[in-house]
């Protein structure tokens, strides 16, 4: 939920811009801004409540070419852009006509977030988390991660001059390990899956008061960074909300915050309040939310992940129930795809639009294809696919699938022969 509160009656001890309180998602219990993520009243997740005041398109357009153009809508200090940070955001929205033709839809866009500083959308959420953590007096940035978050936290901490503590499953893709270790923070590999690593992070967060675990004790602020994907899509479409959007599901936070971003823009009058549908994408080897949706359940049962899409391999997604609420409220759907379909999704996007996505993007493309074929995505409605990470991070997924068409001696005749000319 988004709460607009009377700032005159709200006491704030930190400068987090328009953020005024935390509100529990289940029963709406309110409490002061703090590095806490669960309500002591109803034990549900906490979410940031705002007093936005007046926000105009002109104000946003006059801002920097990064997520801080939306700082009046985020829980960050008013001078956030003046403090060293990775300056993520303002990634391209690609008109994907060739992919649209391949999928059989009329109007298709790809939000390509591979252009962020560490090549995934996680730079957005980490930048917001770091800004909030600084206000709360932390000095170490930390996280449990399936890979992309590890990259983003290590890079953001290095840029800010902070220490970092990053916990990853020991089975993580080699590329993501290297692209975290290069920042020379404290990278710890843990024998276990992401859910094991996440439980360990929660324990450590309670023991180390100066460690800001971005997706644990400062999670309410961190998750707000995903709203900027919705803000950018709406602004890049000429200040309007797309009719349909497909979002990959890991913890589920991104999907719920994209929806929140659209609703905030509409409430503030920045876009027309038009209907839209949100669709969720999971890998079959880790599809607890998709399974719950298919079976008509409200409870998401944890699973043990077994998929090449490791960045989505969260077997017990914290925001799973809220994903179900969002998708059902907007009239969307949630589907899952096999690892083979994931690889084909990666290759399809690459050969039609020249965009190389990691496995999570393969999940998004393949799921969109499946939903279109099932008649759940309207082929005549404008659709956006979120591509959240770079394919260079998951080369192992395609290394046995692609390669040279031929190996020839250095002669034109040999090339012609190989090409059938």
From TrEMBL:
Gene: thrC
Similarity comment: family membership: Belongs to the threonine synthase family.
Protein name per UniProt: Threonine synthase
Superkingdom of source: Bacteria
Cofactor(s) of this protein: pyridoxal 5'-phosphate
Keyword check for Lyase: yes
InterPro entries the UniProt entry points to: Ser/Thr_Dehydratase (IPR050147), Thr_synthase-like (IPR004450), TrpB-like_PALP (IPR001926), TrpB-like_PALP_sf (IPR036052)
EC numbers on record: 4.2.3.1
Organism whose genome encodes this protein: Amycolatopsis deserti
One Pfam family hit: PALP
Keyword ATP-binding: no
Classification via CDD domains: Thr-synth_1 (cd01563)
Domain Tryptophan synthase beta chain-like PALP residues, every copy: 88-389
Keywords: Lyase, Pyridoxal phosphate
EC top class, as a word: lyase
NCBIfam families on file: thrC
SUPFAM superfamilies (alphabetical): Tryptophan synthase beta subunit-like PLP-dependent enzymes
């Amino acid at each position: 939920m988004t709460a607009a509160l009377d700032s005159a009656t709200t006491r704030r001890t930190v400068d987090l811009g328009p953020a005024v309180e935390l509100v529990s998602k289940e029963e709406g219990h309110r409490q002061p801004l703090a590095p806490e993520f669960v309500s002591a009243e109803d034990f549900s997740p906490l979410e940031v409540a705002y007093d936005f005041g007046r926000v105009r398109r002109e104000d946003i357009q006059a801002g920097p070419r990064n997520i801080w153009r939306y700082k009046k809508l985020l829980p960050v200090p008013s001078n956030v852009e003046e403090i060293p940070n990775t300056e993520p955001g303002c990634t391209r929205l690609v008109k994907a006509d060739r992919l649209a033709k391949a999928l059989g839809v009329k109007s298709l866009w790809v939000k390509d977030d591979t252009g962020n500083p560490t090549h995934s959308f996680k730079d957005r959420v980490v930048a917001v988390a770091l800004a909030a953590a600084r206000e709360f007096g932390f000095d170490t940035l930390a996280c449990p991660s399936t890979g992309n978050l590890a990259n983003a936290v290590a890079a953001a901490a290095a840029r800010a001059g902070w220490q970092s503590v990053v916990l990853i499953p020991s089975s993580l893709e080699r590329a993501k390990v290297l692209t975290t270790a290069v920042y020379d923070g404290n990278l710890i590999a843990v024998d276990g899956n992401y859910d094991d690593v996440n439980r360990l992070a929660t324990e450590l967060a309670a023991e180390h008061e100066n460690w800001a675990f971005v997706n644990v004790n400062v999670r309410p602020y961190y998750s707000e960074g995903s709203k900027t994907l919705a803000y950018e899509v709406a602004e890049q479409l000429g200040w309007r909300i797309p009719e349909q959007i497909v979002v990959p599901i890991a913890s589920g936070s991104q999907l719920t915050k994209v929806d929140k971003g659209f609703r905030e823009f509409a409430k503030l009058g920045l876009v027309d309040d038009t209907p839209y549908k949100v669709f969720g994408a999971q890998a079959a080897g880790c599809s607890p939310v998709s399974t719950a949706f298919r079976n008509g359940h409200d409870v998401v049962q944890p699973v043990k992940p077994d998929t090449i899409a490791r960045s989505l391999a969260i077997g017990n997604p914290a925001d799973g129930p809220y994903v179900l609420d969002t998708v059902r409220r907007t009239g969307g759907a949630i589907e899952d795809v096999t690892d083979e379909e994931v690889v084909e999704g990666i290759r399809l996007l690459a050969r039609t639009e020249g965009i190389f996505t990691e496995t999570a993007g393969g999940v998004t493309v393949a799921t969109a294809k499946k939903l279109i074929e099932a008649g759940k995505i309207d082929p005549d409605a404008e659709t956006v696919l979120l591509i959240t990470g770079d394919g260079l991070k998951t080369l192992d997924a395609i290394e046995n699938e692609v390669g040279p068409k031929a190996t020839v001696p250095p002669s034109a005749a040999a090339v012609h022969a190989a090409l059938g000319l």
